[in-house]
Amino acid sequence: MDTDEFWRLIEQSGHAAGGKRARAAWLQEALKTRSAEDILDFESYLLSARRRVDTWLMWGAMRALFGFGSGDDFWYFQMWLVGLGREVFEQVAHDPDALVDVREVQRLVAMEHHGPPWKNDDWPTFEILDYVAGEAWEHVTGDDRDGFYDALRARGHEISALPCPSDEDWELDDEEESARRLPRINRYMRELYGCA
User: Fold this and answer.
1) For residue range 160-196, what is the model confidence (pLDDT) as tens digits?
2) Which H or E run includes 78?
3) Per-residue DSSP letter, 96
4) Which one of 44, 69, 88, 95 has the minimum C-beta count within 10 Å?
5) If you ran DSSP here, which 8-state letter would residue 129 be given?
6) d(Cα 56, Cα 103) in Å, to the nearest integer?
7) Half-sphere exposure of 194 toward its Cβ, with a 13 Å CA cutoff?
8) Radius of gyration of the chain (CA)
């Protein structure tokens, strides 16, 4: 599997299935028809994508837009960004402030402001994507999850369950610093709440 096929599967899951649980089930079934190496490739591309958005700036963007973002939330937000597809992912990975241009982000922010309340599938997190490849691995190989993680480590991946941002640390709740680092998001939110 190459990176194009990884993104094709991510995007096909969005067209073929409604809701995160159904998307994850679709992906798992697709991976179960492939080799163990393909499954490791899929997880490797997912881990590599997540590293690109595991930054303090992206974490700050999440908090500025949605008003929440614990370590777990941000971890699963990274997978939600992958779930949005390659074009959107590349846009925001390059510039987290560009989240303000993403239609799905605008929809969720508007719902927060005007209602209706978010349903479970609306939350900008995609935790279940974290388990897809491991479960497919167990099915295909008969090996347990430890074997899956060992195979990933052998490919040079560090296995973690929490964010580990790689850029400059800053106080995410500092409104002035957030406005300086993420001007478009902060302007959008001020205008939305009539504070412009």
Assistant:
1) 888 999 899 999 989 999 999 999 999 999 887 766 5
2) helix 71-83
3) G
4) 95
5) G
6) 23
7) 1
8) 18
